Amino acid sequence: MIRPGSRNLITDVDGILVGNAEDLAARSGVTVVLPEAPVVAAADRRGGAPGTRETDLLDPSCLVERIDAVVLSGGSAFGLDAAAGVSSWLAARGRGYPVGTARVPIVPAAILFDLLNDGDKDWGADPPYRELGRAACDTAAADFALGNAGAGFGARAGALKGGLGSASAITPDGVHVGALVAANPFGSVTMPNSPTLWAWALEQDGEFGGQPAPRPLAATDLDYTAEATLGGHTTLGVVATNLVLDKARAQRLAVMAQDGLARAIRPVHTPFDGDIVFALATGRLADMEATPALLARVGLLAADCLARAVGRAVVEARSLGDYPDYRSAYADALSPI
Questions:
Q1: Among 43, 154, 178, 319, which is most exposed with the fewest C-beta within 10 angstroms?
Q2: What angle separates helix 129-138 from helix 81-91, to the nearest 10 degrees?
Q3: What are 91-128's pLDDT values in tens digits?
């Protein structure tokens, strides 16, 4: 039977650590996925307003095979500075791609928009993200906070407070799959006029607090009231496995995993979102060949984990400013969580 790992976090995948750091006044933050050793990676972008760094080198045709970290950050374009902080943290520890006697850390990054959440963004010439990147590395561990944490601290999810979420799945034959998400979508995570999450059917071990059964849904029902701002949203995801994958197979894993966002958010991949999913392979399960059939199975699990992570991000979040959290918005319809 396939079950969540002991933590139900992406860190249930061998070799993966996660660190968070927040600027409470700015209502923003950074999340770093910090593998214990360099990992094979790929990415799949489907949103119409992306903000990224070093994602081109993840293409299977490019030279670099492995990366040292992935950064998810608030702050829109300012948040890309977080990757520089992570790179300097890694370089100080001798980590990075060898170029002669030099080491160059490879740190792909993606950002979401949280500039209009009433946090103090009057940072002048010194945005906080470089330091937040370093601070997130310092906290990297197997256990980490969800909800109002890291890149999800200032996030919103449609008309609700968004946040950071994670989930995992472990198979009887030792395959580990996990997902991490900073959920800040334009679309809604709940069914119209209902507390039921779109991802409700995928809930494992009560991780959403027990979901009410959905009502019949008209195909034209819509339930999102967030003001449309170009580039003003975005959901960022990372999936990981302990399989040995090359970059082409990791790319396929990212493509399949991206569908998990469509299981949890409606609408998704809009012109206002910069949705991107990174896929990482630690290679710790070296005695199992990643056949096409196995990759298809792992891609399915990764998509389900990513959808569950979106649900957990919203359920674990707490109100911030004008955006109510899931539990208070639907208090009358939910059992105590």
A1: 319
A2: 40
A3: 999 999 999 999 999 999 999 999 999 999 999 999 99
- 293 contacts: CB under 8 Å, gap ≥ 6: none
Q: In angstroms, rounded to a whole number, what is the distance separating the alpha carbons of residues 224 and 79? A: 26
Task: Please count the structural domains in the chain.
Answer: 1
**Whole domain around residue 89: which residue ranges?**
10-329
State pTM to two decimals.
Answer: 0.94
Examine residue 84 and state whether it is found in any structural domain, yes or no.
yes
Nearest to 89 by CA among 136, 128, 127: 136
The dihedral through the CA atoms of 222, 227, 228, 231 has a sign that is: negative
Asked if residue 1 belongs to a domain, the reply is no
What token pair was written down for 206?
Answer: 């009560």
- Convert the pLDDT of each residue in 144-166 to its tens digit: 999 999 999 999 999 899 999 99
| CA distance to 66, 84, 240, 301, per residue, from 20 (Å) | 22, 16, 18, 25
Q: What is the DSSP code (8-state) at residue 141?
A: B
- The structure tokens 């959440």 sit at 117
Question: Is 89 in contact with 139 (CB distance < 8 Å)?
Answer: no
Closest CA to 13 of 168, 150, 244: 168
The pair of structure tokens assigned to 56 is: 């081109």
DSSP 3-state of 239 = strand
Q: What six digits make up the tokens of 240?
A: 């990981």
SS3 210: coil
Note whether residue 196 is domain-resident.
Answer: yes
The number of beta carbons lying within 10 Å of the beta carbon of residue 61 is 7
Q: Tell me: pLDDT of 230 over 60.
A: no
